[in-house]
């Protein structure tokens, strides 16, 4: 630590003839959201270079997928993006269903839509909490967790777990909604807009918040596309791309919602995108609860799920953080021959060095917060 | 014992002991109050396990800090590392020497003044000692031999020195209004002029008060200006490498600074120990029917605690400024405003 | 007009006061804290907690062990002649669960073919922490059935 790894600047000439300092940011750091390690080159507080180092949470999930039958892999997907287990489940079972040609009954599709929107809300709440606390406002953390708790209670009631849900199966849903669940979900939906206003009241118009976020971490549309950035990050850069609209899955083509897009490409706009997405999620939930059909929850499926020979499939859905996709190759066995995950956080993290170059150290935490990464799915 | 010894040795020492003891007590419970109030703001209950309503929590905290291992990093500069925390606490405590907690003997007609001493350059004394505190933080940050500490120390150096300028300027405003530098004299002037200086020459007094408040929060490194610590950016800033009692001293220093700045603000702008409207007859019940000394003490502490509450409330509400924005606010807004304020106050004073 | 309003906003710090108002209002709201050891939230009926096994119902098919994604259920059985019914019956030698590695996905319960299930997680038990690494976290058949070491909660079964 004390051995300075300082190297002179390439041209060797700064105002005081000073060198750069190398700063290890993480993996144990309050603002790196897990175990992200950033090797920073800083000149004073200004960041000259940023090199993310990942892999501290690597568990070989993709290899594990190859070892066990399709349905046994669902718990593993829970543990990738551990704050958005339902959407991970959904992407995985969606891919398996595509591979095996299973048809999901309408009620199950609606339940899945409700679950994934609840999950989006809970993930965005966690993002808002940590983003705000990174920028120094600690109170929104507790307000968002107050509402997140209600969402987790709903999950617990539905499938028995709060975080690692394991709540979907290829072909349908394992459980039907418990008695009274829709009413409690409706209560939550009714309560939510006011709660979002409360968080917004603390942050949206606050001049300090604006100063810290406007113009910080600019990600132009071209760059975002070039890096394969998806989700709110992309929509904050002014590109209207949402898989729920572009390639509707489950019940998304039967509900009406808007995709918020903002054009300033900075942290503040990404904040606005996610806040608006939360409002839209409540809209979707509202409609889903109204339209929820009766009927079976599990479609026809073979007793043993076997992939066809030489089959491959990619299925991506719009997770809270961006496009989460599964690419599965089948070779006629019960297990996938190969399963490759496309985690949104991994692609969103790639732009981090580009976004923070030339910013101050304090902006770095704001930008890490706005990328909304979960190291569980980056390292897998 | 000769009277001269009693007057010049025994009583001052007693007073100092009482004041320092009181301040320490207030600090420990201020920490508890902060945690409680933050808890309430954040819809939780705060510490409530140690003693009823968590009232023994500060004692538990202190005991924990005392028995903790005191680590000095191997390559730290030892003397500076040790000196840093002391340099933060001591000046903050010294300032209490000139703060009048209650009325002087001329008002109460009693034997004793309710302050330790009354220097005729009290304001300068406050400024001088408030400035020393920054050395402790810089030394601590530099001596730790950690990059995060160093950055924290750098930040605090820039921040505290910048904000001393507007703070110093605003202190001139009550000085002009009162015509004396003695803190006790300033309170007496507010008594005689029948107005708190925050409300004199509206809006000039109020503006000065506001600038002092902002600069004071920045001086004591509190949210939204807590950049030197900035737990989400610099881990813990200048005290990253400190542990045990040395860390506690930094902690103590921060809270002592808060109290000092509040006490000075109350004295200069909010009438110190004066009850509200001391000269309005029908409002004399605000003296609470107590002897003037006790009532003065009550009103002083009441105002002080209101101030401290505002500090904590701010901490629970606002995000943190960025370093360059903080400098911008200080140099581009507060200093010109404070300067103009002083000029205008002088002008008004001459014209009236 | 709007310019005046903007200026007033800028000078009078309305945005900051709005935030202060929100925090001040919340200060008087009901506290959300659950004082854990004294008050506990009742888990939902489907809550996946600690296991329970009913040996009589169990048909020793080992489906649960086979469906476990991380293979932590260990079952050994042998056949024995029941003297009363003169039929061959499967008898469990060993039914161990290494709860330390369990991720409570509930697939074992889902795989169980008996009705009602002979292995189930809906015991509403979640206090599994222990001071020792191996204490209480490797359970054998007796522990699974008798719950000597843990507080017993309602063992409502999934129908």
- How many helical stretches of chain B? 12
Name the pair of protein chains with the most residues at their interface, and give those residue counts.
A-B, 34 and 34 residues
Low-confidence stretches of chain C: none
In terms of DSSP E residues, the strand content of chain C is: 15-25%
Percent in helix of chain B: 55-70%
Radius of gyration of chain B: 21 Å
Rg of chain C, Å, rounded: 27 Å
Helix and strand string of chain C, N-terminal first?
Answer: HHEHEEHEEH
Amount of helix of chain C: 25-40%
In terms of quaternary structure, what is this? heterotrimer
Strand content bin of chain B: under 5%
Number of domains of chain B: 2
Amino-to-carboxy terminus distance of chain C = 67 Å
Largest sheet of chain C: 3 strands, antiparallel
Q: Report the biggest beta sheet of chain B as strand number plus sense, adding barrel if it closes.
A: none
What is the typical, i.e. mean, pLDDT of chain B? 82
**Using DSSP, what is the number of strands of chain C?**
5
The poorly predicted ranges of chain B are none
Query: Secondary-structure element sequence of chain B?
Result: HHHHHHHHHHHH
Structural write-up:
The complex is a heterotrimer of chains A (380), B (352) and C (159). Chain A has 380 residues and is mainly alpha-helical. Helices cover 47% and strands 11% of the residues of chain A. Chain A has 15 helices and six strands. In chain A, the strands form two sheets. In chain A, strands 1-2-3 form a three-stranded antiparallel sheet. In chain A, a hairpin with a 2-residue loop joins β2 (37-43) and β3 (46-53). The radius of gyration of chain A is 22 Å and the shape is globular. Residues 1-9 of chain A have low confidence and may be disordered. Chain B is mostly helical. Chain B is 68% helix and 0% strand. Chain B contains twelve helices and no strands. Chain B has helices spanning 3-41, 57-67, 78-95, 105-108, 122-143, 147-178, 183-193, 204-219, 231-234, 244-269, 292-317, 323-351. With 159 residues, chain C is an alpha+beta fold. Chain C has helices at residues 2-12, 14-27, 63-67, 107-111, 141-146, and strands spanning 52-53, 73-82, 87-98, 119-120, 138-139. The longest helix of chain C has 14 residues, at 14-27. Chain A binds chain B through residues 1-2, 21, 23, 29-31, 44-45, 132-139, 141-143, 146, 202-203, 206, 208-209, 211-212, 360-365, and chain B through 38, 41-44, 75, 145-148, 151, 154-155, 223-224, 226-227, 230-235, 315-325.
């Amino acid at each position: 630590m004390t051995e300075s790894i300082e190297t002179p600047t390439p041209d060797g000439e700064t105002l005081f003839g000073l060198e750069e300092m190398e700063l290890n940011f993480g993996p144990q750091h309050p603002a790196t959201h897990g175990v992200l390690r950033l090797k920073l080159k800083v000149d004073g507080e200004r960041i000259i270079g940023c090199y993310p180092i990942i892999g501290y949470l690597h568990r070989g999930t993709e290899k594990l997928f190859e070892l066990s039958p399709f349905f046994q892999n669902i718990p593993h997907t829970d543990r990738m993006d551990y704050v958005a287990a339902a959407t991970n489940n959904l992407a995985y079972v969606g891919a398996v269903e595509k591979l095996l040609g299973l048809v999901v009954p309408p009620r199950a599709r609606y339940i899945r839509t409700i679950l994934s929107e609840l999950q989006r809300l809970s993930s965005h709440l966690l993002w808002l909490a940590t983003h705000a606390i990174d920028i120094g406002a600690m109170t929104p953390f507790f307000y968002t967790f107050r509402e997140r708790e209600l969402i987790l209670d709903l999950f617990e009631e539905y499938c028995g777990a709060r975080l690692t849900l394991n709540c979907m199966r290829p072909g349908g849903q394992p459980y039907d909604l418990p008695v009274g669940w829709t009413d409690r979900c409706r209560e939550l939906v009714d309560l939510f807009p006011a709660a979002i206003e409360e968080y917004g009241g603390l942050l949206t118009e606050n001049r300090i918040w604006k100063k810290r976020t406007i113009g910080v971490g600019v990600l132009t549309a071209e760059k975002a596309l070039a890096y394969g950035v998806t989700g709110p990050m992309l929509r904050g850069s002014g590109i209207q791309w949402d898989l729920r609209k572009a390639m509707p899955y489950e019940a998304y083509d039967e509900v009406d919602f808007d995709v918020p897009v903002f054009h300033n490409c900075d942290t503040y706009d990404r904040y606005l995108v996610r806040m608006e997405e939360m409002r839209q999620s409540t809209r979707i939930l509202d409609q889903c609860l109204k339209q929820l059909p009766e009927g079976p929850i599990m479609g026809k499926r073979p007793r043993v799920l076997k992939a066809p020979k030489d089959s491959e499939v990619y299925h991506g859905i719009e997770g809270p953080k961006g496009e989460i996709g599964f690419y599965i190759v089948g070779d006629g066995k019960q297990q996938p021959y190969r399963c490759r995950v496309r985690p949104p956080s991994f692609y969103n993290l790639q732009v981090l060095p580009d976004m923070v170059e030339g910013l101050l150290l304090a902006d770095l935490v704001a930008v890490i917060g706005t990328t909304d990464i979960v190291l569980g799915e980056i390292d897998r | 014992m000769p009277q001269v010894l009693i007057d010049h040795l025994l009583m001052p020492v007693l007073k100092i002991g009482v004041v320092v003891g009181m301040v320490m007590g207030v600090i420990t419970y201020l920490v508890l109050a902060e945690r409680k109030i933050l808890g309430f703001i954040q819809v939780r209950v705060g510490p409530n396990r140690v003693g009823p309503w968590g009232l023994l929590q500060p004692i538990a905290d202190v005991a924990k800090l005392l028995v903790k291992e005191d680590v000095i990093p191997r390559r730290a500069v030892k003397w500076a590392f040790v000196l840093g925390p002391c340099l933060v606490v001591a000046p903050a405590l010294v300032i209490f020497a000139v703060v009048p907690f209650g009325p002087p003997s001329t008002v109460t007609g009693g034997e004793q003044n309710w302050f330790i001493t009354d220097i005729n350059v009290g304001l300068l004394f406050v400024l001088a000692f408030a400035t020393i505190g920054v050395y402790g933080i810089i030394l601590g940050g530099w001596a730790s031999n950690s990059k995060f500490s160093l950055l924290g120390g750098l930040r605090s150096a820039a921040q505290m020195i910048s904000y001393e300028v507007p703070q110093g300027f605003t202190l001139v405003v009550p000085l002009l209004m009162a015509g004396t530098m003695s803190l006790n004299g300033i309170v007496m002037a507010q008594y005689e002029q029948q107005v708190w200086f925050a409300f004199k020459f509206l809006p000039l007094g109020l503006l000065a008060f506001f600038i002092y408040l902002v600069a004071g929060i920045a001086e004591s490194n509190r949210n939204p200006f807590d950049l030197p610590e900035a737990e989400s950016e610099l881990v813990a800033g200048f005290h990253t490498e400190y542990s045990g009692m040395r860390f506690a001293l930094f902690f103590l220093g921060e809270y002592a600074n808060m109290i000092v700045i509040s006490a000075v603000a109350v004295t200069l702008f909010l009438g110190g120990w004066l009850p509200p409207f001391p000269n309005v007859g029908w409002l004399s019940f605000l003296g609470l029917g107590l002897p003037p000394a006790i009532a003065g003490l009550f009103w002083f502490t009441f105002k002080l605690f209101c101030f401290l509450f505002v500090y904590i409330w701010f901490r629970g509400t606002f995000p943190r400024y960025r370093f360059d924005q903080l400098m911008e606010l200080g140099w581009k807004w507060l200093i010109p405003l404070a300067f103009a304020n002083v000029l205008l106050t002088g002008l008004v004073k001459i014209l009236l | 007009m709007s310019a005046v309003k903007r200026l007033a906003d800028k000078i009078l710090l309305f945005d900051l006061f709005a935030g202060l108002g929100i925090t001040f209002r919340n200060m008087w709201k009901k506290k959300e804290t659950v004082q854990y050891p004294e008050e506990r939230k009742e888990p939902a009926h489907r809550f996946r907690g600690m296991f329970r096994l009913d040996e009589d119902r169990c048909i020793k098919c080992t489906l649960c062990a086979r469906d476990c994604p991380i293979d932590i259920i260990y079952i050994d059985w042998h056949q024995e002649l029941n003297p009363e019914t003169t039929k061959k019956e499967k008898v469990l030698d060993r039914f161990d669960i290494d709860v330390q590695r369990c991720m409570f996905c509930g697939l074992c319960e889902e795989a169980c073919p008996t009705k009602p299930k002979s292995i189930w997680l809906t015991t509403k038990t979640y206090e599994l922490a222990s001071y020792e690494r191996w204490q209480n976290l490797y359970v054998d058949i007796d522990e699974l059935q008798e719950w000597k070491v843990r507080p017993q909660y309602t063992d409502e079964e999934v129908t």
